[in-house]
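Sequence only, no structure available. Ideas?
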Amino acid sequence: MTEIREERPEHISAIRLVNTRAFGRTEEVDIIDRLRRNCSDLLSLVAVKRNEVVGHILFSPATVESEGGSMRGMGLAPLAVWPDYQRQGIGSELTRVGISTLRSGRCPFVIVLGHPEYYPGFSFEPASRHGIRSEWQPPDEAFMILILDEAEKGSMSGVAKYRPEFAEAV
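Reply:
I predicted one. Tokens follow.
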């Protein structure tokens, strides 16, 4: 059985290892470390199986900026699962729990730059359908948004931005 928990200090080294193994590089780990140092408003969850951290997901503040102002939501990145545990639903469970937590916290939206075959399963859709584009101009189908607060839907349009720690890595 897999348990989803909020990150605790004793999970940090395991989170580093999971992300490094899942992505085969350290860029995501470097972003996570910078976010931990610079931002107190993170939602960081781990998947624990047999007392081992086997997955991790991070949500950090993101904005949609337009001429009329700025709206704050969250950005999902990264999502990592230890390679031996991939394709077992762990990433999906991390995503579901994270979205549920953000929804109950009155977060209006979540953006993600990710696999267009995976994230629509959680009701993400191309952000361009809402007049929202990414600051980095990725392929349209890869930049998605999940609207959590339908009342805010009409007031969202413009350029979506992750925290500056992400731009340093792009």
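The longest strand covers residues 52-66.
Hope that gets you unstuck.
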